[in-house]
Write a structure and sequence with these properties.
Rossmann fold, ten-stranded mixed sheet, 372 residues, six-stranded parallel sheet, 11 helices, alpha/beta, globular, Dihydrodipicolinate Reductase, domain 2, disordered N terminus, 24% strand, 2 domains
Length: 372
């Protein structure tokens, strides 16, 4: 009786985890530190802050392993040979400087959103990553939830959804006075895009996701945006138009109740989700799908009723994001693979629409041609 030959030792050996360096101790970095501890393919190797004391406090507060190295400058973190990839939760105004520096040192880049203040700045980051052969990904976590995969299947199915014609998205939360006066997201020198860059990023990504990343032809901002005294957007919205008649509208705000709605309306069906950015529960997420909907007899209800879909996951979406990013890095580091181009392309399209909305607001809500 013959037996198949044993696999080479290098194939049997599990791949080394991707060693992350966290650049900056922003509050969102706590969530990603936890994700790196949960993701099987990742490890927190180092933390870099503007002071070693702050890095030490962050490591202790977030239960980082004793071997994690603590650096008192961002430069020292980038010079650490034991770091494969860098997660950057710094203010948007610092992204170009430090993301390009990370790429130049051969570090893969996981970058918080908004990724840049404008598409030209993002292009500098993406060019640096491409030149260095490192992976780029933005930290839009809901993209990596298995619910998103399931929703994609139904939206793409002609029988269930048909041709997508209308999309609405909304992300808002009611910020307190401390946030509205002191958070980096309301400071023109740190995160000048305000609510558009923070909450609007998710709305625009959801719209692009729903149309399989086809850029709109025209963007027109909605009248009545709210700005603070420094001119930073606290609330705004826009309508997006496609050449084939599709239309989408979004609203984003720091001033209204926590809401995360997305609606995708097709010729045959409608998808509704009410927690698309962060699911109500970490390990279970739902959405509803109404397909071929009609009125019941006598118009006293609907027939058929929408179906509810529940998707469970053992790992939270941010850990799944870290796991996917780590898989791509491992493929480059350990298997002579090339960076995955899908993620930079999606990021750039999101940034292009952000730019168009801001331009429309700045130009008295005139139409902005995106397709050119």
């Amino acid at each position: 009786m013959s037996s198949s030959p044993a696999a080479p030792a290098e194939q049997q050996r599990p791949r080394r985890p991707v060693r992350f360096g966290i650049m900056g101790c922003a509050s969102i970095a706590r969530k990603l530190a936890r994700a790196m501890l949960l993701a099987p393919a990742a490890a927190v190797a180092a933390v870099g802050s503007r002071s070693e004391g702050k890095a030490r406090h962050f490591a202790a507060e977030n239960g980082l392993p004793p071997g994690a190295r603590l650096h008192g400058s961002y430069e020292a973190l980038l010079d650490d040979p034991e770091v494969d990839a860098v997660y950057l939760p710094l203010p948007t105004s610092l992204h170009v400087r430090w993301a390009t520096a990370a790429a130049a040192r051969g570090k893969h880049v996981l970058l918080e959103k908004p990724t840049a203040l404008c598409a030209a700045d993002l292009d500098a980051i993406l060019a640096a990553c491409e030149a260095a052969g490192v992976q780029f990904m933005d930290a839009t976590m809901w993209m990596h939830h298995p619910r998103t995969v399931k929703m994609r299947e139904l939206v793409a199915d002609q029988a269930t959804t048909g041709d997508v014609r209308v999309i609405n998205s909304l992300f808002s939360f009611q910020a307190d006075e401390e946030f509205l006066h002191n958070d980096i997201r309301v400071k023109p020198d740190l995160d000048a895009l305000g609510a558009l860059g923070d909450a609007g990023w998710y709305c625009i990504r959801a719209i692009l996701w729903a149309v399989d990343y086809e850029l709109p032809k025209t963007v027109i901002a909605l009248h009545g945006p709210v700005k603070n005294q420094a001119g930073v957007l606290l609330a705004c919205g826009a309508t997006l138009y496609w050449a084939n008649g599709k239309i989408a509208t979004f609203n984003c705000s720091f001033l209204t109740n926590l809401t995360m709605d997305m609606t995708v309306v097709g010729t045959n069906g409608t998808l509704h989700i009410t927690d698309f950015v962060i699911p109500y529960e970490e390990k279970s997420a739902s959405f509803s799908m109404a397909s071929k909907s009609k009125f019941a007899e006598l118009h006293i209800g609907w027939d058929p009723l929408p179906s509810k879909h529940v998707v469970t996951t053992d790992l939270p979406q941010e850990a799944l994001m870290v796991q996917e990013f780590s898989r791509l890095v491992q493929n480059i580091r350990d298997a002579d693979g090339k960076p995955e181009g899908k993620w930079p392309a999606i990021t750039r399209k999101t940034q292009v629409v952000i730019d168009a909305v801001k331009t429309s607001i700045d130009n008295d809500f005139g139409p902005v041609d995106v397709s050119s």
